[in-house]
Amino acid sequence: MLVYYRVRNEIHTMFKEPLKVQIAVISDLHLGRKDKLDQFNRNPGAEAQLYQLLDYLETHVDKIVLLGDIFETLRSKTLNKTKELKTILQYYPKFANKISNGGKYVLVKGNHDLVTGAVLGASEYLTIKENNKNILFFHGHQLDSVVADFWTKNFENVGVWLGGWLERMGIDITKKANASSKFKSLNNLWKVGGFEIAATALGKKLNADIIVTGHSHHPMKVEIENHLFLNSGTRVGGRQDMIILDTNINDYEIYKKFDPSSQSSHQMGPFIEEALS
Ligand SMILES: [Mn+2]
């Protein structure tokens, strides 16, 4: 039997429901209008790979957490962000269909999503308690004001929006950055910094044992002061990052490239075998 879960918008109601679940976490897709600005779509095969993965996860895990920055509405031309989100959903009908059918998908807000809370019911924080472990999920932009420098704090959104216009004019400002970021990710070159420490500190304050964020596009699994911090990375720039949290066997893993076709149906842990039988 698959188990029930609860999404909580309010921090103070956290960690009430004991569960036994296996959770996949994906973030930072930045889906757009399939134009020059669509950082996800401009990587050949990205959409097909995503659907292959999601189809697989739907039958092999209990929950699929979409941990923010799923939709790129921050860089959009239009000021009507609800309309923009609906347009993006039309460009990705299969994805829209998957998440609107509820079921295993849990949507958490990111800073580029802007209206997913109002339109799709995304929550700010998601918490799960299992095997005496409290797991806290949030996108991570909530920490920007704590860790960012003056420039980022005051002008980041303007910069992102301006970058969108440069790209519309044919100036690709992210290609080089994406290549360097991919190299660092595949070679585990990301180091713990202010963001990871602040995320862990927040988790500690909220009584979480495991803290999971996206936002930085730095896939990571690291222990900070006896707390496990994980970052789900991204799926832009040709990246295919994902986290699988198995709360049944306390196994928490980052995948930089996960090929569903290489998996047998019984490889995902004893709980899932039981669930399938
Ligand atoms: Mn973000």
Description:
The protein is of the alpha/beta class and 277 residues long. It has a single domain (19-259), classed as 4-Layer Sandwich (Purple Acid Phosphatase, chain A, domain 2), CATH 3.60.21.10. Helix content is 34%, strand content 18%. It has helices spanning 46-60, 81-91, 93-100, 116-120, 144-147, 150-168, 175-186, 194-205, 270-276; strands at residues 22-26, 63-67, 105-108, 125-130, 133-138, 210-213, 220-224, 227-231, 242-246, 251-255. The strands form 2 sheets. Strands 3-2-1-9-10 form a 5-stranded mixed sheet. It has a 5-stranded mixed sheet with strand order 4-5-6-8-7, covered by helices on one side. Strand 4 (125-130) and strand 5 (133-138) form a beta hairpin. Mean pLDDT is 81; it is low at 1-19 and 265-277. Manganese (II) ion binds at residues 68-69, 110-112, 139, 141, 215.
Main attributes?
five-stranded mixed sheet, 277 residues, binds manganese (II) ion, globular, alpha/beta, disordered N terminus, Purple Acid Phosphatase, chain A, domain 2
